[in-house]
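Exam revision sheet. Question 4 asks you to relate a sequence to its structure. Input first:
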Amino acid sequence: MKRILRFYFALFLIIALNQSFLSQTAKNPSIGKEVTASEPTKNSAVTIEKVETDIAEALTIIQEKYVNKNLDYNELFKVAIDSMLHTLDPHSNYLDAKEFEQFRTEQQSQYFGIGATIGDLRDSSGKVIATYIKSTFEGSPANRAGLRYGDKIIEVNGVSMLGKPFPEVRSHLRGPRGTVAKIVIERHDTGKRETVEIIRDAVPQPSIPEAYMIRPGIGYIAMTVGFNQTTYNEFQKAMAELKSQGMEYLILDLRNNGGGLVNQAYRIASTFLARGQTVFTQKGRLENSYGTFPSDNPNPDKTPMVVLVNRNTASASEILAGALQDHDRALIVGEDTFGKGLVQNPFLLDYGSMLLLTIAKYQTPSGRLIQRDYSNGSLYDYYTNGGSLREERQNNKQKGEESKTDLGRKVYGGGGIQPDIVVKPESIPAERARQQAKLLDPIFAFAMDVVYGKVPSLESYRVNRPIIFNHVLKPSDFPITESVFQAFKNFAMEKYKIPANLIDQEREFIARNLRIEFVTAAYGSMTSFQVSNEYDEQLKQAIEALPKAKELLASSLQKREAFTNR
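Answer key, structure tokens:
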């Protein structure tokens, strides 16, 4: 296998070099003669040995004669291999050693660091002042060390962090497990600096960031991160907790879930599908890359459910949504999903790298091919105009072949999962988005003052205790009253020179983000998602669709029972 991969890589690079040489000529300044590529030898059979010889010679010429001496050979090889793979399909990829290590870490639902969310604060001119702690995770090293919302990060291991954007600061905070991060922080309430030594450790990255009762009797599970090794166990735990709180309906949020481990999606689908009902079918060349995968659950869950999807719902999450839709087990609400129906298998290479190669295609139970067309070969177009930026479907109909669900409802392949109820996300003009972005820094700066009791009229909003995790938000938690809004308005006008009319126009945006900051300080970043959900139009429509989901489930169970009793 390694020899074959090496052959194809060499072949691609030779082709690329030949195209480059044939497409241009150069003047040799020393002798003034035009230099052109020589004619290729005709009727020369391509063998692995010849390609390996050519690639060695080509690399020698590059090394000896290229205009720049310092070449990044890892990047050169990576780009060459990726380009070769993307002539096959958009989802086959090469991961170098560093990327492969990151890939393995993500699959394990964890990373190594201090376990805190951080964010920038900029001044009125847009210059980064510093990066601050926003919240810590339950049981994380940062949480145990007492880091809190509003702590300014001054230094990490002797390197100043002032003025650096948060991605750079984050790279200093993360590191191998067991190593020390010596952090100098400045407390917002006192202005005093402290040195905290934190031993980096594994920090969980749950694939279900939030699960709670969004309304009486209605459970909500945000499965928005991806499918990794712990997803099914997290899901089972969330379901048990919600049922103990009286859940009668379920909303499963798959928006922005880009996929991951298919076996985890299969197990979650099997939670709701009866033994023998197909979850998906896989078709490939290799042994174990083809076959039908049915549920083996003798006692499936019968909670009526709505599944939320959008344009970034892809791959394994489309398998899950497609299985539930084809068996009329759930109502799908939102937008057309991304449309990734190709299965990648990892192949380990030398020097710690890995090849993710497409080995099969999958179909939903009704026979739908979910994969979108990629025949034009443009990777950019596939991910933009064909993906998250694509135009809406004409006449609300897919281009692919028609299939039918168990109850005979029409569904279409070739372009992702089409929702049963289409709900577009709210959008605003680009100029308004830029105006809103100007408000984020004053919102954060004001929130820190409020949280630490520096705004005389708002002492009741002070947070003088550690984070309370797993809190279910109530309307009485940090309401944005008229006095809060006016205090912010005065602050933003004075400190950031924000016009009064802009503040008044964006009152809802300001109220939402102020409350997010207060909730983050008191209950953590995970709980703050509940504030955003209160403004989510797609989620509101999903809640309203639950009675239809209940009717759909009843019809599906009735038909299945009738079929079983024949």
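Marking note for examiners. The domain at 113-204 is CATH 2.30.42.10 (Pdz3 Domain).
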